[in-house]
Design a protein that fits this description.
99 residues, 53% helix
Length: 99
């Protein structure tokens, strides 16, 4: 069951997609400076997404639960949104982005 989006959330999603089309070349070149291997580290957490600040604001407008004060709900929402195509340009390496 999918939750219905409000008009503001839909508009934020449209603006985010437009910004991604405009900024994708820049983000792709920037991320290509990193290794194209799967990101491996032994730290407690690892970098999964690299989102520009203005895109982050639009992303949180489109998906308000990303700013939920409940950590469990916020984590569930981030995991759900990260699997969506809308987050593909923000994945850390090229191999993940091209899937």
């Amino acid at each position: 069951m999918q939750a219905e989006h409000s008009k503001i959330e839909d508009m934020a999603l449209q603006v985010l997609r437009t910004r991604q089309r405009e900024d994708y070349g820049i983000m792709d070149r920037q991320m290509n400076m990193q290794k194209d291997e799967i990101f491996k580290d032994s730290s407690f957490s690892r970098l999964a997404l690299k989102v520009p600040e203005d895109h982050y604001e639009l992303l949180t407008m489109a998906f308000p639960l990303l700013q939920c004060t409940d950590a469990v709900e916020k984590t569930k929402e981030w995991k759900r949104v990260t699997k969506m195509d809308i987050c593909r340009p923000y994945l850390v390496n090229k191999k993940q982005r091209s899937l």
